[in-house]
Design a protein that fits this description.
This protein is α/β, with parallel strands linked by helices. The chain has one domain: Alpha-Beta Barrel (TIM Barrel). The protein has eight helices and ten strands. α5 links the parallel β5 and β6. α1 runs parallel beside α8, α5 packs parallel to α6 and α7 packs parallel to α8. The chain is globular and about 55 Å long. The termini are close together. Homotetramer.
Length: 251
């Protein structure tokens, strides 16, 4: 039934969180550094977002960009972040870890899941970097992850649609398969109909100009390919509303 569809919106600000809820999102994935695919947000951001929204807030546990093979020190950070986010109001967590040969790091993930209990946990798009998605999915089921976010191991959910469909069929309801990656109002219906998934993930953002009047255009705060200093990306109420309406009308 149409009401079974749920849109998760990844957000990195209070404004985006509020906009996503207003647009009809059913859940938030709270991160920072969306340019890097999402990193662990601050406790301050989590606490203020929780003050302004009522829908569940799942927090990203990812200490850095890049691969998903973590050092002992990074694992320590992730353990502490799980503990802190859990004790400060997170409704769920989003995490993942791989071995050097591209398998799910079952031992480490088991440890993280134990630390997260009783919160539900999503395995994030580290899944798209695994050597064998069918084998990885069975590992996630056996470990007890609630869902996996995936673009079907391709550049976008549309490109990876055949793999997403196979994963949904393989999962048989034991774990939720949530397509994500490049989802827009132009391709959502095709992705939902083609995959059989009941949840989907997107950022639904629009550009917003900075309110700064004085601008020093000679300086950037990040690397050469960083985001513009005087432009913001925020979740767009209208875009979220359009995507949730498409989902409702797909069945």
């Amino acid at each position: 039934m149409a009401e079974e569809y749920l849109m998760e919106v990844c957000v990195d600000s209070v404004e985006s969180a509020v906009n996503a809820e207003r647009g009809g999102a059913g859940r938030l994935e709270l991160c920072t550094s969306l340019l890097e695919g999402g990193l662990t947000p601050s406790l301050g951001l989590l606490q203020i977002v929780k003050q302004y929204v009522k829908i569940p807030v799942y927090v990203m546990i990812r200490p850095r960009g890049g691969d998903f093979l973590y050092s002992d020190h990074e694992v320590e950070v992730m353990r502490k972040d799980i503990e802190l986010m859990k004790s400060h109001g997170a409704d769920g967590l989003v995490l993942g870890a791989l071995t050097e040969d591209g398998r799910v790091d079952a031992e480490l993930c088991m440890e993280f899941l134990a630390a997260a209990r009783p919160l539900p946990v999503t395995f994030h798009r580290a899944f798209d970097m695994v050597h064998d998605p069918a084998v990885a999915l069975e590992t996630l089921v056996s470990l007890g992850f609630q869902r996996v976010l995936t673009s079907g191991c391709d550049t976008s959910a549309l490109e990876g649609l055949p793999v997403i469909k196979r994963l949904v069929d393989q999962a048989k309801g034991r774990i939720a398969i949530m397509p994500g990656g490049g989802i827009t109002e132009r391709n959502l219906q095709r992705i939902l109909e083609g995959s059989g998934a009941q949840e989907f993930h997107g950022s639904a953002r629009s550009s917003k100009d900075s309110a700064m009047k004085f601008r020093n255009t000679c300086v950037t705060m990040g690397a050469a390919f960083s985001a513009p200093e005087y432009g913001l990306k925020v979740a767009d109420v209208c875009k979220v509303r359009t995507l949730t309406a498409i989902a409702r009308n797909t069945l």
